[in-house]
Amino acid sequence: MKICCDIRLSKSAIAIFGILNLICFLPIAAVQASELDSLRVFIRSLQSEIEQKQAVITQLSKEFNSINEKIYEYKADQNSGANPFSNLRMQNALKTSHELADSIDSINKQLRESKSKLQNACSAAIQQIELEIQHELEFIKLSPLDKRQRKNRLALVKNLENEKADYAARLQTIKVDEKGWEKIIIQPEDNLRRLQLKAALLEDFLSNLNQSVRFLESEIEKNRGDKKTYTELLDFYKELDESLDDDQDIFDRNRIEELRYKIEGLDGEFGRLKQQMSVLNRDITILKAVSERFKTAITEKEAL
Fold this sequence. Notes:
- It is a single chain.
- This protein has 2 domains: 1-176, Helix Hairpins; 191-304, Helix Hairpins (Orthogonal Bundle).
- It is built from 5 helices and no strands.
- Helix 1 (2-80) runs antiparallel to helix 2 (86-142) and helix 2 crosses helix 5.
- It has helices spanning 2-80, 86-142, 147-173, 192-243, 254-303.
- It is mainly α.
- 87% of the residues lie in helices and 0% in strands.
């Protein structure tokens, strides 16, 4: 009887201890969950905002490139004297080009600010998730949970770990690089010589960007060639595998999986290269817009 009584007391003590732990953990977990939920909403909002700004920049960049092509045509007409209205058209096109350049530059600055906010929000979310995981594990350790409850809690921890990994991956893709040419701006005190020097620096940056584009183009072509080679090899090995019996060890069948793995890796690399190319092309468009503003400022100075 005494032993049974001790056991009953022990179970009761465990239950009370578990309830006390639950009472202690609930306020902390509730606060963390509230903060994390707010961060989740903020991150989704920022992500949508960034995508919208990127879409606007892409559209404006197309318009900017199109109007610049027309400017070159109008200049050619003006030099040849073939079209008496070419000068007026060129002036209107230049005005539109400068307005587009200002818009692209302005939205790009807003985009950088949004990306910076997203970086901070993702970092904060990761910290909150780590705290929530820690408290969940403590709760599981100290609370009297049955098998089903424990399984559900561990599933929650797994989901939080996956969410943390997702935010960590986003941090790797969000880049707010300081570009040297973005620091080159027109200032009120700039004289003609200083404007010309700044314009020359911008042309140097533009040349480097174009060189990077050419390098990426060669890397993309190499990627395509490698993928074509590995795909043909994979098709050959698959045909060979289908034509042979399982006990015929003419070739290593693991080679098929190795080739699939290589092709998957090349696909991932291709995506990264295309993303880098997209960023470079956008930077080139923005840099051209900045360069056009300097050319206008130099022309105005020369006219004084």
